[in-house]
Amino acid sequence: MSLKSRTAVVTGSTSGIGLAIARAYAREGANVVINGFGDAADIEKERLGIEDEFGVKAFYSAADLSKADEAFNLVVEAEKTFGSVDILVNNAGVQFVSPVEEFPVEKWNLIIALNLSAAFHTIRAAVPGMKQRKFGRIINTASAHALVASPFKSAYVAAKHGIAGLTKTVALETATFGITANAIAPGYVWTPLVEKQIPDTAKARGLTEEQVKKDVLLAAQPTKEFVTVDEVAALALFLASDEARSITGTVIPVDGGWTAA
Ligand code: NAD
């Protein structure tokens, strides 16, 4: 399942799921564009580490994906640098937990911009080149919250349901051009995004942080275990492969059975 000669753009890949996906693609020989926030020295170390370990080219973009022009230009710059964007993973995302009537408007706007609209902007930038080359893999990191809701996550659940709709629509529009569009719907994966929401969830529900982990997060997941970033990356790798060419328009759960209930 080699990705040699492919270029992959993975948004939000300085941490968590995105980093695991970028590394999985590089391991299979793809050049990668990593993106996201964080300590500049740590990011440079990661970028060089990918190049050294896997013998590919890795480029870093600090684009703020909550801004339409920066999201669009991320793909334009990647095409200029590598000649094509063959695999686009829309993964950057943030969470905020609050009752709907107290939900800060700026948090709503940020989550819709980053978790939903950014994917529209990168996709509209990437699709013309993919159509021309008759190959493309668009993979959106959705969430179990693309399929079911949880209280206190109005913006996140709205954005993730939106990503599912965008994925299906793009799949239909691009199906005859060798392009696939799919969404991965992870359950709870142990990453900084989950870790950071524990104190606010504890506050919103009047629980201790330990109770949130056991009785709220893992209560939803029949396996009673967190999903790992490598398990999500393994699916993203398969969806990017030639063998996955007939899989399009799907929202695939990796959620330990959560959405089966
Ligand atoms: P994470 O916090 O480890 O990573 C988020 C990444 O997004 C980081 O690289 C961060 O720098 C980047 N980012 C944040 N704001 C950005 C911006 N404005 N522009 C560009 N990059 C930005 O979180 P994660 O858990 O790996 O989340 C990745 C994706 O997976 C998100 O879309 C999230 O909604 C989704 N997801 C996570 C879980 C989970 O349980 N962790 C479950 C389902 C879906």
From TrEMBL:
GO terms for biological process: monocarboxylic acid metabolic process. Pfam families: adh_short_C2. Its EC number is 1.1.1.30. Keywords: Oxidoreductase. GO terms for molecular function: 3-hydroxybutyrate dehydrogenase activity. The keyword Amino-acid biosynthesis does not apply. It comes from the Bacteria. Belongs to the short-chain dehydrogenases/reductases (SDR) family. This is 3-hydroxybutyrate dehydrogenase.
